[in-house]
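Dear colleague,

Thank you for sharing your sequence with our group. We've completed the structure prediction you requested, and as agreed, I am returning the results in plain text so they can be pasted directly into your records. Please verify that the sequence below matches your submission; if there's any discrepancy, let me know and we will rerun it promptly.
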Amino acid sequence: MKKIDRTYLNFTLALCTTVALYLISQNWKDQLVLQNVKVYDTSILTDGEVKALADVKTGSSLYGLSLSQISCRVGRNPFVKEAIVVRALPYDLTITVHERNPLALLAMPTSMLSVDGNGIVLPLPLERKNDVPVITNIPAQLSVGDTVKGNLMQAVKFISEAEKLGERFSAGIAEVQMSGERGDNLVVFTTASSLPVIIGKGNFERKLLYLQKFLTEIAGSSDCSYVDLRFDGQIVLGTQSISSQLNVVKTSESSGKVN
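Please find the predicted structure tokens below.
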């Protein structure tokens, strides 16, 4: 009987201690109020824009704030891929933003937007990042939040592959034009040469190496009107009009000689 009483007593003491600690911790939490909101890792959005999206007021109970709701509010901005919100005790809130970075500008019939490497359509970044290529001849109108597909996604992939070769090289790509009847042949214009460069579709890794070789060893030393990189194993320098060359693509593609 005594053993049972001692066990019961120990349990009661442990329960009382737990409840007391809980009440003390709750009282301590209630005394913690927000003093500062700190924003990290932004390059497109400003700290002020992120804080406005977070919509939290200093003086609020730090533990009364919903971190998930704050993250969702910040994530509503199209440039935000993910927002990680953390309480930085005793008085701060930190918001780490992973942004969607514009890979290229999209020139459409009635407006201009931008797109990231995953094909997500973003607003125009205004003057904050204007050193990216522009994709032209886009037949359809797109809206912020859309995901590009088909031939337009091919243009995005081409620019993404160019970035892998280094910022110095990718910055030299000024325009990627969607040409051909269905926009399925890409034509590139660079800052190093005024010549249009026919890329076609697919095999971008190989074609970018050819483009590098052309720009460093051939550009400016030959009298031609366009460059064609669709042929495996060679760089073709042409003198006929580029529009005529693109019209010939269909007959060559069927035999697998051009891509």
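Summary note from our side: The chain has three domains: 1-31, 36-99, 104-253.

Kind regards,
the structure core
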